[in-house]
């Protein structure tokens, strides 16, 4: 194990993050919404992004442990931005997936000194009635305490059908390991994504941007990534790449995903 788990309090709230790599460039990863947090899988994360370890110093920030009801995506982004400043992570390459992609867009628009290049993975520029139904269903299940149904719905919508079916029992078993605090945290963060609209913020992003999506995304829909690209019509340094068949979690499922990130950031 060459990674470390650390804690920082940049915004009056404790935030944990993992760090690995020894390069002189910085890569910041902002993960998406998860049922139990991403740091318990730190070893898998390090292996997934091991291609970066020689050229980059990699930081992955988890969400605050007890987010209050009413927290928004801008507040989540502020946690990351202030943590980056406290750690001196200026001019960084930033990859945000799903909810993390929403934060990445806001961060690049509002703190350009922190963002050298950004990748927006499986995310949206604006949540509306058409692309928020899955998120709203998850919130409803969390509110009702239907943890097993939530875990199964999460797995079914985020991952490809064949992967979900092969791992259905694992997603069902997750309901037994997810604590009440985990579900409460998930609910607060999911609600915080409501009314998200970064349309105007995208116009202020000046750094190079790579948008990566999948045409079978069942969380935000197949058009979410192309719609972001349209908002960047005046940004000549914006690229779009679409996968097919990997689902919303293409960032975990596509074997060449980390390589695409590396080629863009290096």
Concise description?
This protein has helices at 42-48, 73-86, 99-110, 133-143, 147-158, 161-166, 168-177, 180-192, 199-202, 224-231, 250-253, 257-265, and strands at residues 4-8, 15-20, 25-30, 56-61, 92-97, 115-121, 209-214, 238-243. The chain is an alpha/beta fold and 266 residues long.
The string of secondary-structure elements, in order, is EEEHEHEHEHHHHHHEHEHH
Strand-residue proportion: 15-25%
By DSSP, the count of extended strands is 8
By helix and strand content, what is the structural category?
alpha/beta
Averaged pLDDT:
95
Detail the poorly predicted runs.
Answer: none
Write up this protein.
With 266 residues, this protein is of the alpha/beta class. Helices cover 41% and strands 18% of the residues. The chain is built from 12 helices and 8 strands. It has an 8-stranded mixed β-sheet, sandwiched between helices. Strand 7, helix 10 and strand 8 (238-243) form a beta-alpha-beta unit. Helix 4 (133-143) runs antiparallel to helix 5, helix 4 packs antiparallel against helix 8 (180-192) and helix 5 packs across helix 7 (168-177). The chain starts with a strand and ends with a helix.
């Amino acid at each position: 194990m060459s990674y470390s788990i650390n804690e920082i309090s940049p915004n009056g709230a404790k935030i944990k993050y993992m760090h690995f790599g020894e390069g002189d460039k910085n890569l910041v990863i902002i993960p998406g919404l998860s049922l139990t947090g991403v740091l318990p899988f730190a070893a898998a994360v390090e292996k997934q992004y091991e291609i970066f370890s020689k050229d980059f110093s990699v930081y992955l920030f988890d969400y605050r442990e007890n987010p209050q009801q009413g927290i928004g995506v801008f507040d989540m982004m502020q946690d990351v931005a202030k943590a980056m400043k406290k750690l001196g992570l200026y001019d960084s390459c930033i990859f945000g997936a799903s909810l993390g992609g929403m934060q990445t867009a806001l961060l690049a628009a509002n703190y350009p000194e922190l963002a050298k290049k950004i990748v927006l993975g499986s995310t949206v520029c604006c949540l509306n009635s058409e692309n928020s139904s899955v998120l709203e269903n998850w919130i409803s299940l969390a509110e009702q305490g239907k943890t097993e149904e939530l875990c199964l719905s999460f797995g079914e919508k985020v991952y490809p059908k064949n992967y979900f079916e092969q791992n259905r029992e694992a997603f069902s078993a997750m309901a037994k390991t997810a604590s009440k605090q985990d579900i409460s945290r998930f609910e607060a963060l999911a609600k915080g994504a409501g009314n998200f609209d970064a349309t105007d913020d995208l116009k202020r992003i000046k750094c190079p941007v790579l948008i990566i999506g999948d045409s079978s995304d069942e969380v935000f829909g197949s058009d979410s990534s192309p719609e972001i690209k349209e908002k960047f019509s005046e940004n000549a340094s914006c690229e779009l790449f679409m996968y097919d068949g990997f689902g919303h979690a293409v960032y975990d499922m596509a074997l060449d995903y980390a390589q695409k990130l590396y080629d863009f950031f290096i």
